[in-house]
Amino acid sequence: MSHGHDDHGHAASSGVVNPVAMKGCLYLLIGLAIAALACGALPYYVLPKLGYGIAVPVITIFGEPLAKEKFQILGFNVTNTAIALILVDVIVLAIAFALRNPQRVPKGFQGGFELIVDYLYGVTKNVVGPKDARKIFPLIATFFIVVLTANWTKLLPGFETIGALHCAESSDLVTMSGYPIHAEDEDLPFEGSIFSNIYLLKVEEGLDSGTKATPEGYEECEAKYFGVVHAEEETHAEEGEEAVTTEGETPTGEGENAEATAENGEGETTEATAEGGEGAAAEEEHVYSEAADRLVVTPFLRGAATDLNFTLALAIIAMFAVQYYGVQKLGLGYFSKFVNLPALGNMSKKPMGLMDFVVGLLEVLSEVSKIISFAFRLFGVIFAGGILLIVATFLTGALAPAAVYGIEFFIGAIQAFVFFILPLVLINLAMVSHHGDDH
Prior knowledge:
Blueprint: H1 2-13, H2 19-50, E1 72-73, E2 76-77, H3 80-98, H4 108-128, H5 130-153, E3 163-167, E4 177-178, E5 211-212, H6 215-226, H7 231-248, H8 255-263, H9 266-285, E6 295-299, H10 308-330, H11 341-345, H12 353-396, H13 400-430
Antiparallel strand pairs: 1-2, 3-6, 4-5
């Protein structure tokens, strides 16, 4: 023992370098170099010098239409969240199709899926009992699978980053910040197929949040890049044409003087002036201010749970299921917890029955508040996670968002389980009688 200790002390005193410590130091330096490149040099110097810096996407609560008034179903604009929900449905149907003929000895994907289903079914049996679990489980398990798929597909590359260019708007609802694009003036986006060309936003500064749009700039941008002339511009154009026509007309009774002027050669000057004026007007039509070059990207795909319509629809279905299973278990007497008529009729013997009746009315508000709670809980967590990813990418480049992705992966699973367990507990409470006489 003492001999080894003496050797260690001798090695330390003689200045011998520990090779393991040197390797650790090398790994530390490599890690710091990668962090400096990914979080410093790349997002704040290299990419901005090339014009491809990180841009801040448009953050809106509502789903964004892919093409206003051009891509509609039944008169409604198709949003990017609706397309993402269709993708979720396709994935869920693909899973069901892949497992339509399960193997007797599960392995691979089937084995992992069965582990999840067995766990969820075990939780269901523990809460509502084996008898009711078989009829309740398909619905609440569907909640879990759909919400989990929606939350995890949101993390796929391309979500909320690749989409269609459109002009930055300025209105009472939203004022967007836009960027120019890497294109010459004659190379207009959306000529022909939207997939014929790919355009990238031009970001030439680190932490560049773009330039705020203005109503005038939006109209210029629409005319320059998409050939859309707004009503006000059309009115001004028509007024200009009328003014030119009126000035060009020959007044009544002055025809002879006009002919005489033309014979003296002044008519040629008038024609030349008119031609020059038309040429100048044509040139002015192609002159746009810098405000016209403010474009933003509407992603083709955006997480379905970041749309309140989706979470609200799930919440309504969940609470409708709660009432359905309550009535199925207790009959029409289930509604007595909302309108407690027996308590009101028995007030002569039990005056406190009035309080029971009032509490029953408050239960109605409680059921409505549960719909709001379900909808905003899922929407708020997933929407906030998307903003966190945007902010982390914008501020730190390529390294820190990887950790945020890991957090969002687990949060997506947790929120799916929350949307599974809460309806299950509420269904169980709904199937239990609230009156002592029934026990």
